[in-house]
Amino acid sequence: QVQLVESGGGSAQSGGSLRLSCVASGRNYRYMAWFRQAPGKGREGVAGFRPDRSAEYAGFAAGRFTITKDNVESTLFLQMNSLKPEDTAIYYCAASPRWAIVAWSDPSEYTYWGQGTQVTVSS
Q1: String of DSSP letters for 30-94
Q2: Over the chain (123 residues), what is each successive 10-residue block's mean pLDDT?
Q3: Could you tell me which residues are beta bridge partners of residue 10?
């Protein structure tokens, strides 16, 4: 069975760090990504992977966040540094069973989603 279980969310001060984890059970997915949804806003891509397995980031995440994947343990990570209050959102892990995806930041590319983990950044 497919299950994505997230952890690592919580509260942080502005400028602080958090590390999110997402464990994928059932199979190892080639394409996984992180999304987030802030109050009153739609779900947006945070970080994902290109076909060559290099990381890709949304503009707001570039230089501050790092996405990595442990293929042995089938676990996705998101290291978030230099956090800002505007990073406050529910963060979701997503996975695609496809051979390839067209756009990593398009939610419709992903079939499976984690339950979400709350990240709250205060000033």
Answers
A1: SEEEEEEE-TTS--EEEEEE-TTS-EEE-TTTTTTEEEEEETTTTEEEEEE-S--GGG-EEEEEE
A2: 89 98 87 95 95 93 96 90 98 92 92 96 96
A3: 119
Q: What is the pLDDT of residue 38?
A: 96
Q: Are 56 and 49 in contact (CB under 8 A)?
A: yes
Q: What does residue 85 show for φ and ψ, rounded to 5 degrees?
A: -55, -35
Distance CA 66, CA 63 (A): 8
Cβ atoms within 10 A of the Cβ of 70, count? Answer: 12
In angstroms, rounded to a whole number, what is the distance separating the alpha carbons of residues 56 and 107? 15
d(CA 113, CA 35): 10
DSSP 15: T
CB atoms within 10 A of CB 113: 17
**Separation between Cα atoms, residue 115 and residue 93, nearest integer Å:** 8
Phi, psi of 4 (to 5 degrees): -115, 120
